[in-house]
Amino acid sequence: MIKLRLKKYGKKREVSYRIVAINSASRRDGRPLEELGFYNPRTDETRLNVPAIVTRLKQGAQPTETVRSILKKAQVFEQVNG
């Protein structure tokens, strides 16, 4: 199963995340199928590749709870259903 999850990178106490499409059996920082966006929790900055995310969701990818909340804030789910 393909999951949309966060991949951790950066220094200690200065962590940022990439939103990636990855096989659910892979480890957290393993090789992703595709990088779909960026999230910085310290500044609450997000950059999303919305067309690629919509494509992955239509193919049946399941977002984790954290990624789901980020996508809700960016109103991505309206584009999937609409």
Topology summary:
Elements: E1 2-11, E2 14-23, E3 34-40, E4 45-48, H1 50-58, E5 62-63, H2 65-73, H3 77-81
Parallel strand pairs: 1-5
Antiparallel strand pairs: 1-2, 2-3, 3-4
If you had to describe this structure to a student in words, what would you say it looks like?
There is one protein chain. This protein has 82 residues and is of the alpha+beta class. It has a single domain (2-81), classed as S16 Ribosomal Protein, Chain: A (2-Layer Sandwich). The protein has three helices and five strands. It has helices at residues 50-58, 65-73, 77-81, and strands at residues 2-11, 14-23, 34-40, 45-48, 62-63. A five-stranded mixed beta sheet has the order 4-3-2-1-5. A hairpin with a 2-residue loop joins strand 1 and strand 2. The longest helix is centred in the middle third of the chain and has 9 residues, at 50-58. It is globular. The model has no long low-confidence stretch (mean pLDDT 91).
Short structural description:
This protein has 82 residues and is an alpha+beta fold. It contains three helices and five strands; from the N terminus they run ββββαβαα. It is globular, with a radius of gyration of 12 Å.
The description of the largest β-sheet is: 5 strands, mixed
How many helical elements?
A: 3
Portion in helices: 25-40%
**Mean pLDDT, all residues:** 91
- CATH class equals Alpha Beta
Beta strands, count: 5
CATH fold-type name: S16 Ribosomal Protein, Chain: A
Outline: globular
CATH architecture: 2-Layer Sandwich
Question: Helix/strand/pairing class, anyone?
Answer: alpha+beta
